[in-house]
Write a structure and sequence with these properties.
This protein has about 300 residues and is mainly alpha-helical. The protein has 2 domains: about 120 residues, no CATH class; about 130 residues. It has 14 helices and no strands. Helix 3 runs antiparallel to helix 9 and helix 10 packs antiparallel against helix 12. The longest helix is centred in the C-terminal third of the chain and has 29 residues. It starts with a helix and ends with a helix.
């Protein structure tokens, strides 16, 4: 296979563009919109959205490359079918692409508003610490909840950078933006836990999952609790953005659907139920950001 075909196969398995690009487009645009709407400022021009998307895309690809570094030995031992262990692409190539993308992100940040480089550097610093497992890999892996929290903390830092595309040149962030950053952290937990809830018979030796760690019923309840906290944050953000009823409706419907899926998985942990929770995690995150980032504009709720 040519290099281009191998890279295309790699992205399909490890960084699927058909799923990732729409999610990042909504996530980054919503961050810019929410920052402007909360502060009562007009929306910026298209350059802001292009900059935010490019930064988000680079950071999330670099996070994937960092995961490849952290998981290399476990993948060789327990998941040899993954692209790097089976030789589809090399770790050096993936990491090289991630490093090569850094100057592009830095140039985009500088071209838009040079102080944005500080927020980009902050996100990169945390990513570097994550890749090094905060210099205590064994200690951290023995504490799964702390591991989850420490790694999901990068998401509000990325969101701070994305909202900074608007508020740095705009005059500063609105205090209510803190609720939006908190939502990013909790949504990250929803995604991370949701993708690690496995069906009966799908657990693999050496592969850490929350269904194995906590048991399927408890893990499903914890996932539902994360969705509930995220739903509450959607409602609170909706109040700040002038769409309290709509945000509460979306949050309530999403939470009810998540609770039903979690209960079904806990009772009958089939492969279909596993896939449903994984898909529902992504759909919930997409719905949350679309609601807050775009509904106020469509309904006139934003000031």
């Amino acid at each position: 296979m040519s290099l281009s075909r191998r890279l295309w196969a790699y992205q399909a398995e490890r960084f699927p563009l058909l799923r990732t690009v729409p999610l990042l487009a909504v996530f980054s645009a919503a961050a810019v919109n929410v920052s402007a709407m909360l502060a009562g400022r007009p929306l910026p021009n298209a350059g802001a959205y292009l900059t935010a998307f490019l930064l988000a895309f680079v950071l999330f690809f670099q996070m994937r490359a960092a995961d490849e570094v952290k998981d290399l030995e476990d993948d060789r031992r327990f998941r040899p079918e993954r692209p790097i262990p089976r030789g589809l692409v090399s770790l050096r190539l993936v990491v090289g692409l991630a490093i090569a993308a850094a100057p592009l992100a830095a140039l985009a940040a500088w071209a838009w508003h040079p102080p944005l480089l500080w927020l980009l550097a902050l996100a990169w610093a945390w990513l570097a610490l994550m890749t090094a497992e905060f210099l205590a890999p064994s200690w951290l892996k023995a504490r799964p909840v702390l591991y989850l929290v420490s790694h999901m903390a990068i998401l509000p830092l990325i969101d701070l950078m994305l909202t900074g595309v608007e508020w740095l040149p705009g005059g500063g962030p609105d205090p209510a933006l803190a609720l939006f950053l908190a939502l990013s952290f909790v949504n990250g937990c929803v995604l991370e836990i949701g993708r690690k809830l496995k069906a009966a018979g799908h657990e693999r030796a050496g592969v850490e999952t929350y269904s194995a760690l906590w048991g399927r019923a408890r893990a499903a309840r914890i996932w539902s609790l994360c969705v509930a906290v995220a739903a509450a944050l959607v409602a609170l953000n909706g109040l700040s953005l002038g769409i309290p009823a709509l945000a509460a409706l979306v949050a309530g419907v999403g939470l009810a659907a998540a609770a039903w899926l979690a209960r079904r998985y806990a009772r009958t942990p089939t492969p279909a139920a596993e896939r449903s929770l994984d898909a529902a995690s992504g759909l919930w995150v997409l719905l949350a950001y679309a609601t807050l980032g775009f509904l106020p504009l469509a309904t006139g709720g934003a000031t």
